[in-house]
Amino acid sequence: MATTADFKNGLCIEFNGKLYTIVQFQHVKPGKGGAFVRTKLKNLETGKVIENTFTSGVKINVVRVERRPYQFLYKDDLGFHFMHQETFEQVSLSGDLIENSDLLKEGQYVEMMVEADKENILTCELPPFVEMEVTYTEPGLKGDTASSTALKPATVETGSVINVPLFVNTGDKIRIDTRTREYYERVK
Length: 188
Known about the structure:
Radius of gyration: 21 Å
Number of domains: 3
Number of strands: 16
Order of helices and strands: EEEEEEEEEEEEEEEE
Helix content: under 10%
Largest sheet: 6 strands, antiparallel
Shape: flat
């Protein structure tokens, strides 16, 4: 058991029978009345972010979680298959636990959040940036833009379609931000 004084970003708690992680919190001490804590909580099952206010000093259940390194092996009808980097244990996950699973390519490293007491996998997070090769995009013509932020669709090696600037061509390697699914830069 912990109290609201123990809140920190990333802390995993049990709230209303579900697991949440604290995205943001703020201690508030108004001039009149008792202190309280405003929080934004992310549901680990659905990914939905809710806001909640806790009165100061209230007891909460903290869930012990571990972050473990895994490597993506392959995808088949049963789901996505991963191998633990240290124990070489293999696990299979459904696609709904993996955010932006279409940006996952074989051999890529991911980090899984595991509930330590029950060995239950909660989330699978891709690295912040991944490098992909553009397999198809229309050629961009010089003078084809009225603004400096013109984008065109490009298909990358996993089959995902990402909007890229006009100067990116088929065969180029690009870096993609996995959190926003946006083009970040071209890689030499």
